[in-house]
Write a structure and sequence with these properties.
By secondary structure, this protein is mainly alpha-helical. The chain contains 9 helices and no strands.
Length: 211
């Protein structure tokens, strides 16, 4: 397979939930250093409920399932990061709804709209130490792969590598949004917690068995 069906999207959301639980303590540590320390708790709660919602839904449209996950996260994890991630899933999912399967073109659109939604909602720009700095390089990698007609599996692996590099790059940035901005220069040397969440999401897509 070189595309994602509704069942694949359900599996991806479950895997994101599992990943959040696996890294719950790490997310709390990252967030405690330059935030309020609740990121791991918030992400676990949001994706727990997102899984419950998509598992109980008979929806066969993968885009609408992504939207449903976002709407559920918005309701159950209304923190700053919860709201941004929820917005990304809702905007990205809406952009690809109406498709029976999501190939590389649709996945590129999904993540493009995901990032656009976050930037519009949070006012973040590249280089400001946010989730955008992990996901925007991934989007650029997906778009390049699409132009070069690369297989979805390889495209997502490259995008994941780009997201990883982007997340690491936030260590040298000064935070300008939210609670991390209070730390100013002291935020330098620390990976942005939101960027790590973005990397985690991209990593699950890249490792999905549904490709």
């Amino acid at each position: 397979m070189n595309s994602f069906t509704a069942d694949d999207i359900r599996a991806i959301i479950r895997s994101i939930r599992d990943s959040m639980h696996d890294e719950r303590a790490h997310l709390i540590d990252l967030d405690s250093a330059i935030g309020d320390g609740d990121l791991g708790i918030t992400m676990c709660r949001g994706f727990d409920e997102a899984v419950n919602a998509i598992e109980s839904s008979g929806e066969t449209d993968p885009g609408k399932l992504l939207m449903l996950a976002g709407m559920t996260i918005a309701k159950t994890a209304p923190s700053t990061m919860g709201t941004l991630v929820a917005t990304g899933f809702m905007k990205g999912g809406k952009a690809v709804s109406g498709k029976a399967e999501l190939g590389l073109s649709e996945i590129a659109v999904f993540f493009d709209e995901f990032v656009d939604g976050i930037m519009a909602r949070g006012g973040a720009k590249p280089g400001e130490k946010t989730i955008v700095d992990a996901l925007l390089p991934a989007v650029e990698a997906l778009r390049k792969a699409e132009r070069e007609n690369i297989a979805l599996t390889s495209a997502l692996e490259t995008a994941c590598s780009a997201a990883s590099g982007g997340a690491v790059s936030t260590k040298q940035m000064i935070a300008v949004h939210g609670r991390p901005a209070y730390y100013g220069d002291k935020s330098i040397g620390r990976e942005d917690p939101g960027a790590h969440v973005g990397l985690m999401i991209m990593r699950v897509f890249a490792n999905s068995p549904g490709q």
